[in-house]
Amino acid sequence: MTTTATAVSSTALYDIPGPRARKRHLLYGLLSTAVILGLAGWILYLLFDTGQFTATKWAPFTYKGIQELLLRGLGNTLKAFAYASVLSLALGAVLAAGRLSEHRVFRWSCTVLVEFFRAMPVLVMIFFIFVALKVQPLPALVAGLALYNGSVLAEVFRTGIHAVARGQGEAAYALGMRKTQVMTYVLVPQAVRAMLPAIISQLVVALKDTSLGYLITYEEFLHAGKLIASNLDYDLPFIPVVMVISPIYIGMCMLLSWFATWVARRERRSPRTKAVDVAPARPVTVLPGRE
Hints:
Structural class: mainly alpha
Mean pLDDT: 83
């Protein structure tokens, strides 16, 4: 009975595919795989045909000076990302708290700020801070990333708080808790689980957007790659540089996603999130007159 109920509930949103549908799905999968493999093979053919894997084009990456330049650029990228992520989370929390405020002035002010910075292109903000305000490259890059990603995270936080069942907050208020206590001890801990994927996705965006720093002469990872490619004396020098830089960017984003998955699993295994065993009822002394 339990197995049947589980099977029915797991397929309640769609029909179980029949034999013909399964054959079509298999055919679609094989065709998609063939297209992807063909595209990958065509790209590899072009790379080999243009001589991108020759020893001459990869020899510069064995030089100590180029390796140090790449490592320095990678370190600058991680430094900008660390500053921007911390400030984005802090700014997002402040703006979300303002949008959830019961005071109309605070709520409207934070709403205007969130909508303005969400609508403003990141590159425009970075250039404005760098050129108009004459700020150094690193603070200009971090400020632009923090303003944009912080405004997006503010909406993520606000939506996550609203996603918690309304009865949770009402029960906390009924126990005499203040709004700050309700947010800190009841709503936010439950909302974090729903918000975590969106938060990590936005931090991945911030990590990739650090590459905009090369436009304001900030010596980050992409700027280092551009500097290396501009000093190589063979055809299509950017392709080997991109083949070195791209996997590192992808690896950092995947590492960040893996960290989010690890945090989510750890949160699910936390004793605070597990059900508490309730002791079975035991006979008690009957009050006089209640027999």
